[in-house]
Amino acid sequence: MRKTLIGMGIAVVMLCVITFMQGGWTLLGNGLFLGGRIFVTVIPLIIVAFTLAGMISILVSEEVVSRLLGKEAGLKGILLASVAGAVIPGGPFIFYPIAATLLVSGAEIGAAISFVAAKVLWTVSRLPVEVALLGPKITFIRYGVTFIFPILVGLAANALFSGHTVRIREEIRLLQRSDKA
Amino acid sequence: MFIAFCVLLIMTVTLMTIAYRRGDGSLVRGLKAGRGMLMGTIPLFLLAFPLAGLIQVAIPADLIRSWLGQEAGWNGIFIGSIAGTLIPGGPYVAFPIIAAIINTGASIGTAVAFITGWAMLTIMQMPYELTFIGIRFMTIRIISMLIVPPIAGIAAQWLFGGGF
Q1: I need a surface site. Which of A30, A62, B72, B89 has the fewest CB within 10 A?
Q2: How buried is A153 (Cβ within 10 angstroms: 0-12 exposed, 13-18 middle, 19+ buried)?
Q3: ipTM (interface predicted TM)
Q4: Other beta carbons less than 10 A from residue A181's beta carbon
Q5: What is the spatial distance between Cα B67 and Cα B116, in angstroms, rounded to a whole number?
C-alpha cells in the first residue's frame, strides 16, 4: 500500500513536471482540472461499484467462487469469467474492484486475467460506440481477430503464473486494509 | 456512461434485495464491506485521478499521428501496438483520435493492432489497476497480454488486408 502510494505520488510529480515543461501552467492546470472532472463525473459510478463489490463479497461465498472460478474450475472458470467480463459495463474503476473481490474470494489468476481481457476486448457495451465511430468493417474485423484471446491469455496466465495467486490476494487485502471484517 | 450507471445500479439493487431477503444481516455486512474497500483505497484514488488527467494532456495525439502516418506492413503493426497504449481516455475520447489516425491511411493491420493496444494495454487504466489490485497482478496481466495486439494486427492484415 505505502509503496504503491509513493510510486504513484512520484508518477504524479513527474507528469506535473513534464506537462509544465510542455505547456506551462495552462497545460498543467488543464491536466489537473481534467482529472478532477473525471473524478466528479464518476463519483456515483464509484459508489455503486463498491456497493456491488461489497455485496458480491458477502453474497457469493468463497466456496462458490472457488468452485466456479478457482484452480479446479480450469477452462470452465476461464470461460465463465470471460462471459462475466463481456457483460459488465463501466470503466476501470468498476471492473478492477470487482476483479479484486473475485480474486480475494477464491478466483484463480487465469480467471481474473480472462475477466479483464474479456472486459476490454469483448465488452458488449462498447460495441455500438465502436461501430459508430470507427465503422462496422474495422469493428467486426477487430472483434473477430481478438475473439479467442480472453480465453488464451487466461490459460497462459494459469499455466505460467498460478503460483502468484496467493501473493496477489495478500496484496489486495493490504490495499483494502479495512476489508478484514 | 449513463447506461453503464443504470445497468450497474440494477445489478446492485438486485443483489441488495437478495441480501435483504436473507434476513441475516447480509445487507448491512455487504454495505460495510463495500465501504471498507472504498475507504481503504481512497488515498490511492486521490492520486489516480490527477494521474489519469495528466497522462491525458501530456501525450499529444498529434505526436502519435505523426508517428503512424502512412506506416503499413510490419512496421505499422508494431508501431501501432505501442502507440495504442498511449492513447488517452475512454472510448468516447479515444475512438475519434483512433478514427483520425486510421483515416490518415493506416492499413487494416495497423488499425487493429492500434485499437487492440489501446483496449488491452492503455497506460490510462494502470493507475486504477495499481489502486485496486496491485503491482503484482498488473505485471502478470501485462506480460500475458503484451503479445496480443501485434498478433491481432498480423492476423487482420493476413486475413482481411491481402497479406503483407
Answers
A1: A62
A2: buried
A3: 0.86
A4: 8
A5: 17
B140 interface with A at CB cutoff 8 Å: yes
CA B27 – CA B129 distance, rounded (Å): 27
Which residue in A has a C-alpha nearest to residue B42's C-alpha?
A176
Per the structure, the complete domain to which residue B91 belongs is given by 59-160
Q: Sort out which chain A residues have CB atoms less than 8 A from B160's CB and list them.
A: 141
- The answer for residues whose C-beta is within 8 angstroms of residue B121's C-beta and 6 or more apart is B84, B85, B142, B145, B146, B149
Number of domain units in chain B: 1
| Banded pLDDT at A3 (limits 50, 70, 90) | confident
- State in Å, rounded, how far the first CA of chain B is from the last one: 39
Q: Which residue of A has its CA nearest to B32?
A: A54
With contacts defined as CB-CB under 8 Å, which chain A residues touch B137? 103, 109, 112, 168, 171-172
Q: Is residue B21 part of a domain?
A: no
- Which of A162-166, B50-54, B122-126 has maximum average pLDDT? A162-166
